[in-house]
Amino acid sequence: EDQVTQSPEALRLQEGESSSLNCSYTVSGLRGLFWYRQDPGKGPEFLFTLYSAGEEKEKERLKATLTKKESFLHITAPKPEDSATYLCAVHRGNTGKLIFGQGTTLQVKP
Amino acid sequence: EAGVTQFPSHSVIEKGQTVTLRCDPISGHDNLYWYRRVMGKEIKFLLHFVKESKQDESGMPNNRFLAERTGGTYSTLKVQPAELEDSGVYFCASSPQVAGGETQYFGPGTRLLVL
Q1: Residue A68, exposed/middle/buried by CB under 10 A (0-12, 13-18, 19+)?
Q2: Do B44 and A100 make contact, defined as CB atoms within 8 angstroms?
Q3: Using one digit for the tens of pLDDT, what is the confidence trace for A72-91?
Q4: Counting one residue from A and one from B, how many pairs have CB atoms under 8 Å apart?
């Protein structure tokens, strides 16, 4: 059965304290792994798509990496405005649907 | 370019009533998806339209839910009659192509509370 598990569920960091969020997945025929950011009361906002093991993508303080079993979202020197819920989702080849993890809620304190 | 829009942003109804949610995808996007997040759970897929056709409705919880996409443009999701367990946030997303791995862009969601 397709499954996406994110850890930790919640993470509190001090401003400038780097860390990583984990997304473990089991899915047959992975066509893409997506990272989204969600702020309270809003919809998921697209961050990255990763397609194959070894791929890496960066955007400002965020860097996403992908292996055959998991993805990491590395946050370097975070700022309070990086506080949000980060969602991981996978896309299986023969369907259009995304399978989401439960998300990691990040709080960055000044 | 305008993003995915959803209406209403919030809806509070009583059990047994009917509610209709609307989604306007990004212009030119053939693919439209409905998802739902209930309290404490992950976002879950409901169904997928390609233009006006239902491609996959495997996530629809039961026959109280009816989705339509007239003319391949906007979509509506009707819940009739609503039950308490239907409460949650309903998201719509769209993507331009049918091919796998396409990025889906999400709307702000409709927060539904059934009392």
Answers
A1: exposed
A2: yes
A3: 999 999 999 999 999 999 98
A4: 69
